[in-house]
Fold each of these.
Amino acid sequence: MKTTYLGHSCILIETKGKSLLFDPFISGNPFASNIDINELSPDYILISHAHQDHVLDVESIAKESGAKIISNYEIFSHYNAKGFEGHPLNHGGKAEFDFGTLKYVNAVHSSVFPDGTYGGNPGGFVLWNDEGCVYFAGDTALTMDMKLIPMLCPKVDLAILPIGDNFTMGYEEALLAAEFVNSDSILGCHFDTFGPIELKNKQEVINLFEQKGKTLHLPAIGNKIEW
Ligand code: NI
Ligand code: MN
């Protein structure tokens, strides 16, 4: 699997010949001005919850690419009513796709569209196939439910976790989350985009993970990690 960090919580994963775009928020992110949303052309757009900093570019990218939208039932229905195709999931449910198995898991957060439309309950995703297993936590607090993931899914090779604090867990809790899901490799997200989630002392944070035998990746926006 190849993973490209597109800023904030937006991640592109390429696996089994398909490309999956998680939580597209690019055109509103001044740090991601090097990314052209028209060049992404994903096969699927996966949405963890309905907040603007996770859905801003969904419609324009889905229109351009014809990408199918996968999210909770309420978010899927919101886009389906506008003519977009896709697949609804809900918490605890998994389904088979042409890219592998996808499970929608619990997150502790909130979920409402920018215009006030109900966005269901927020979640995260676990994606696996014979190329590996990745956990995309979405916006969440640290939660004991994360301990269920190793019991229900294959070994997590990469955990994509929010580390910016204020609206989600901070990096100290993300380190515990990595232990809960039993992953040694972490891609940090949801930091620096706005003032309240600025991550200071990045090298110290990376060192803290290293002391616990874990690797925290903080790639530049647009950079790819292969694993
Ligand atoms: Ni949020
Ligand atoms: Mn957010």
Amino acid sequence: MARTRVLIDTDPGVDDAVALLLALASPELDVVGVVAVNGNVSLDKTALNARRIVALAGRDDVPVCAGCARPLSEPVIEDSLVHGHDGLGDLEWNDPAVALDARDGVDFIAEMIDQGPLTIVAIGPLTNLAVLLQRYPGIEGRVEHVVIMGGASLQGNVTPAAEFNIWADPEAARVVFDANWRITLMPLDLTHQAFLDDDDLAYFSDLGTEVGRRTAAMLEPYAQFHERWYGTRDVIMHDAMAVYELLDPHAITKQGVRLAVEVGGVHSRGATFIDRRREHAQSEVRVGVRVDNDRFRSLLRQRLATYAD
Ligand code: BDR
Ligand code: CA
């Protein structure tokens, strides 16, 4: 089987952690590296969390680098408490057995692009990718595919207009959306169709493995957040959708669109405009529209069960 070379740009984040564990357990993917970005929590924490998850997966062969610590412009966002104070649900962790790679995260992405066809999975704010495009003009022409979790058609989750990853650095999103490369975007209207419930948490915890126990433990405070925020403990698997798209490309229905982002506005900074008019139907830029959650979570269960203790 030809494996897809993948680099994951992330701000872990509990749902980032699930996405990473899914990717690292999937034989369809060759994960060549993980680059952290400032987002759910500050860069020092997201880089540590990325190392924790890669170590938990037993993958010390996968380099973890730190990318950008600040968005392209002010204001710098504060740590969000959605994923706990540490970004991973505030569990106890040993020092991860995976060291931080000394290479600059953005330069590392460019290095991986130089080495062969690369798909970038971006599941945090888009700062690293915007800086990549600015630092290496024309590099977008050498990237095979960019799969992004971000944006919303109708309803944001940080403000009524804006989804977190775009809101955290709208200027970066604009640079990324304006570049001429193949983008597949998983917005909130798609990701809210993909969720785990208490049966899934019990399944992970009953696996009897460290990955299973920690996945369930990380998801528990995230489920409590969902209950406070949305009135149900179903935990939305935003970031895993970007990985799932590469594992089961027909599972998510997609539509050709044109993307734009609001960088000004009194109430609308960070809003995405997903233009679904028919003239864009054949565009290389697409958004996820529908996903079958049972099909997704059965694959997730199966893949996470492959981790040994
Ligand atoms: C996005 O924001 C973060 O909190 C999640 O990790 C996900 O990437 C969802 O809006
Ligand atoms: Ca994320």
